[in-house]
């Protein structure tokens, strides 16, 4: 457990500004010895799939024998999930030790305004990976790309762009072109860029940015991907010359993410990394990313999923249609006010028979009772639960062994569900 002082400081940071000042953040890192300049990074940005692609790349590189730092966000249960080496999370002792270093460095500024929560975590991550001599750091942006704290790095091994669509429109822009511009901000001069196939207006931005930066641009080719088997136990597929690849991540979109990860590995091979085909097969098969079509209980089947925007909702809808056709679907749903939850509901709720609404533990959450009337247009039975535990108990009481309970909408509450479920069974 963190000390009270650490918890209080993290809470203070979480309520401060979320807008990074890269010039000021650079000064902080200079005081800390510029640990980021000693790291070789694979830098990822995008709207959906960043965490999955990052975990797939990391798993392959680990199988190839490299020491890999993995920096992701958000976390489901503990902030230490964001900073790991291989499969091992940063210890609370190391986290607090490095947090103290960052606070000491921040105290040297005449301007005493707080750095953002994400800036502090990013500084801790850079220090941790540097002192542990990681061979590669797989580095996921927090929000956007151009002004993201991770974009302080100047020469990554490569830039990776996952699917780009609408999300965080208040910060990134109201059009795909504006959002793509922010995401493409991680593209650096002469550095290879690997992208998921994108919408035409997004593609235009990425292509023109790469041309201006003289950066080689590669895409994964989904026409080269064929599905062999797709069950709740995992998926098997072919991609280009790789035959019978397997992943345990569910949903066809995860096979597409795996194809993007393979393209990144191909670029790293060109850059001189030693990665045998065996490492690709084993890494993909071992990769795990909690909270994304993640089965946490059987009979009844209980899944948690981080779908909170339109693209995530489309992937969830496709998965429900494929895996659970004809099943009784019970939803546990909660959302933040600043998400496009209207479209998320429109895409998912008609596939369910029961919706139980909860209020995520965030000041940005929309109250469950305020959502109730809206969802009644889509789903036959709708309930608003006072607590997440109450909602979970209600879902279980309404389910039989053949039912499927799906909790989704906000990562702010799905991370709590595995522990809550244990108390309900």
TrEMBL record:
It catalyses: (6S)-5,6,7,8-tetrahydrofolyl-(gamma-L-Glu)(n) + L-glutamate + ATP = (6S)-5,6,7,8-tetrahydrofolyl-(gamma-L-Glu)(n+1) + ADP + phosphate + H(+). Keywords: ATP-binding, Ligase, Magnesium, Metal-binding, Nucleotide-binding. Residues 291-410 form the Mur ligase C-terminal domain. It comes from the Bacteria. Pfam families: Mur_ligase_C (PF02875), Mur_ligase_M (PF08245). One of its GO terms (molecular function) is ATP binding. Its EC number is 6.3.2.17. InterPro entries: Folylpolyglutamate_synth, Folylpolyglutamate_synth_CS, Mur-like_cat_sf, Mur_ligase_C, Mur_ligase_C_dom_sf, Mur_ligase_cen. Residues 45-264 form the Mur ligase central domain. Its cofactor is Mg(2+). The keyword DNA damage does not apply. One of its GO terms (cellular component) is cytoplasm. PANTHER family: DIHYDROFOLATE SYNTHETASE-RELATED (PTHR11136:SF0), FOLYLPOLYGLUTAMATE SYNTHASE-RELATED (PTHR11136). Belongs to the folylpolyglutamate synthase family. This is tetrahydrofolate synthase. The lineage of its organism: Bacteria, Bacillati, Bacillota, Clostridia, Lachnospirales.
């Amino acid at each position: 457990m963190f000390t009270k002082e650490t918890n209080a400081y993290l809470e203070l940071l979480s309520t401060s500004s979320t807008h990074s000042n890269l010039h000021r953040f650079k000064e902080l890192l200079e005081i800390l010895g510029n640990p980021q300049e000693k790291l070789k990074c694979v830098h990822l940005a995008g709207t959906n799939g960043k965490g999955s692609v990052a975990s797939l790349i990391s798993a392959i590189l680990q199988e190839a024998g490299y020491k890999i730092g993995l920096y992701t966000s958000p976390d489901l249960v503990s902030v230490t999930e964001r900073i790991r080496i291989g499969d091992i999370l940063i210890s609370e002792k190391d986290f607090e030790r490095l947090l103290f270093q960052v606070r000491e460095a921040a105290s040297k500024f005449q301007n005493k305004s707080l750095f953002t929560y994400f800036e502090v975590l990013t500084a801790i991550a850079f220090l941790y990976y540097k002192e542990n001599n990681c061979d590669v750091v797989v580095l996921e942006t927090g929000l956007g790309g151009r002004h993201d704290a991770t974009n302080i790095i100047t020469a990554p091994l490569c830039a990776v762009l996952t699917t780009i669509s609408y999300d965080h429109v208040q910060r990134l822009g109201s059009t795909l072109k504006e959002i793509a511009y922010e995401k493409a901000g991680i593209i650096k001069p002469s550095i290879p860029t690997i992208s998921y196939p994108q919408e035409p207006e997004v593609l235009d931005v990425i292509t023109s940015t790469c041309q201006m930066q003289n950066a080689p641009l590669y895409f994964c080719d989904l026409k080269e991907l064929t599905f062999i088997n797709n069950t709740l136990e995992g998926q098997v597929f072919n991609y280009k010359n790789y035959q019978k690849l397997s992943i345990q991540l569910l949903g066809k979109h995860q096979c597409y993410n795996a194809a993007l990860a393979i393209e990144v590995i191909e670029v790293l091979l060109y850059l001189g990394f030693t990665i045998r085909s065996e490492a690709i097969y084993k890494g993909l098969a071992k990769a795990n990313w909690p909270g994304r079509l993640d089965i946490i209980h059987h009979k009844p089947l209980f899944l948690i999923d981080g779908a909170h925007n339109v693209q995530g909702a489309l992937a969830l809808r496709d998965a429900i249609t494929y895996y659970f056709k004809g099943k009784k679907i019970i939803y546990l749903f909660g959302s933040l006010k600043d998400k496009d939850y209207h479209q998320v509901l429109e895409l998912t709720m008609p596939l369910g028979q029961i919706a139980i609404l909860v209020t995520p533990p965030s000041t940005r959450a929309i109250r469950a009772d305020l959502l109730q009337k809206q969802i009644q247009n889509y789903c036959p039975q709708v309930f608003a639960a006072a607590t997440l535990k109450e909602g979970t108990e209600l879902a279980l009481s309404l389910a039989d062994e053949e039912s499927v309970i799906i909790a989704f909408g906000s990562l702010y509450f799905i991370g709590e569900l595995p522990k809550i479920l244990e108390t309900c069974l």
